[in-house]
Design goal:
alpha/beta, Rossmann fold, five-stranded parallel beta sheet, kinase, Adenylate kinase, ATP binding
Length: about 190
């Protein structure tokens, strides 16, 4: 079983690459955003709890986010592996994920970060924002704020996984096919 954590700033191409990777390696793709949307839309108990924080303008606590993710992983007991997209985002989430994976006799195999220059990514998002309808992709200040949050909260995870020998950086600039090939080279050599 192979379990991959996919990192990257907004606009780095995580969603696009996740589609290729899940097909090629027959992985279950678990996107934190999709998990949140499902729980909120279906008014699950965890969704109701998350909504309280969100309605107050607060971040959903790590513990609650982790519970949602664990529920989603448990829906796929016969998977070949999991592609985590958007989780973990903090060290405490990474520790919780490691503990959970160990409890099911598994582990995070590798973390892969799609890396690209901020200015290139900002242009990508502004371009995407013209057609996606996503308000957060249409305002450069909001995009820069998202990058600052990424640097403060998510980037330390790279060191956490590097210390475990599980971190790989991949150049996220180029054609979709070129980036997919770079990711495949990393995964094929695990």
């Amino acid at each position: 079983m192979i379990n991959i954590v996919l990192f990257g700033k907004p606009g780095a191409g995580k969603g696009t690459q996740a589609e290729f990777l899940k097909e090629k390696y027959k992985l279950t793709h678990i996107s934190t955003g999709d998990v949140f949307r499902f729980n909120l839309k279906n008014d699950t108990e965890l969704g109701k709890q998350a909504r309280v924080f969100m309605d107050a303008g607060d971040l959903v606590p790590d513990e609650l986010t982790t519970k949602m993710l664990i529920d989603e992983v448990n829906k796929h007991p016969d998977t070949n592996g999991i592609l985590f997209d958007g989780y973990p985002r903090t060290i405490s989430q990474a520790i919780a994920l490691d503990e959970f994976m160990e409890s099911i006799n598994s582990k995070v195999t590798a973390t892969v970060a799609l890396e690209a220059d901020d200015e290139i990514l900002i242009q990508r998002l502004l371009e995407r924002g013209k057609t996606s309808g996503r308000i957060d992709d249409q305002d450069e200040d909001k995009i820069r704020n998202r990058y600052q949050e990424y640097n403060e909260k998510t980037a330390p995870l790279m060191q956490y996984y590097n210390e475990q020998g599980k971190f790989y950086a991949v150049n996220g600039i180029g054609s979709i096919q070129e980036i997919t090939e770079r990711l495949s080279t990393v995964i094929d050599n695990l």
